[in-house]
Amino acid sequence: MMRKKSTLRILGGRVRYYRQLRGLSQAALAKDICTQATISLIEKRNKVPSMEILLQLVNRLGIQLADIVVEQADRNQRTLNQVESLVRHGDYQAAEAKLHTLVPEKFKEPSATRRFYYFQGMVELYAHEQPEEAIYYFGRVLNPTLSNDHDLLGIMATLGFALAYANQGANERARVYVDSALALMATAAQPDQEALTVALTLNWHLAQVYYALQDYAAVLTYVRRGIKRAIAEESLFLLAELYALEALALRATGDAEAPASYEIAQALAQLQEADAASDRLAAQWAELSA
Length: 290
Fold this sequence. Notes:
Blueprint: E1 8-10, H1 12-21, H2 26-30, H3 36-45, H4 51-61, E2 69-71, H5 75-88, H6 92-99, H7 110-126, H8 131-141, H9 152-167, H10 171-187, H11 195-212, H12 216-232, H13 239-252, H14 258-271, H15 275-289
Antiparallel strand pairs: 1-2
Helix pairs in contact: 1-3, 5-6, 5-7, 6-7, 7-8, 7-9, 8-9, 9-10, 9-11, 11-12, 11-13, 12-13, 13-14, 13-15, 14-15
């Protein structure tokens, strides 16, 4: 019986990038997981290891499996992964350009369709400042024929509603959706290998909503919770973005610690070559300083 050829493709260059970003040698990354030779094969020849090894590696690197593994035949998922990274770093113009290359009606998986609509909602909200359009797309994410509102995308779309309403000045509606998202978070279960990135993502999104609501005490609660978790697990995932929100919240309240957080956020953004995130933070900082 012929063995079915794997459709998974590992991005060895991305593994090397995240390893170096963490300051790890190949031997340090491999310790108690696999051999250094395995890491070398992954990085140089895109050798796909066992799923058990892969999950342990992404945990140590503090990233998601989708950051380094793609389906060979699925260009849509690869593009959506690129869009996710652009949105995370605040480069909404580039994210929109990528989205324009996709046709969601032709997607094979409902999850890809939901991701597309979520990112489109974020683009409408931040690139075009069109909260009504954003609400439409977040609603598509929660389409009952596609979604499970207890999963991460469902929770993020619910927070997207809160962001959109906060940007409209409809704070009471925004808080209704924040409360709904918090209730969903309390009951949602995520696989162990995704626990860190999910927790940081949700803390970041909650902090964004509270910043839009000008509830700076709540912003600081969630960003510091995320920063503490990221540092404890030696992860750079969303760390620059969390420090950026901390800096802005502290600046808005006149706290003397704001410049220190700003410098950390900028240093982390530059380390990750996140120019759009760095420029966006600089612009927001200048606006608060005016």
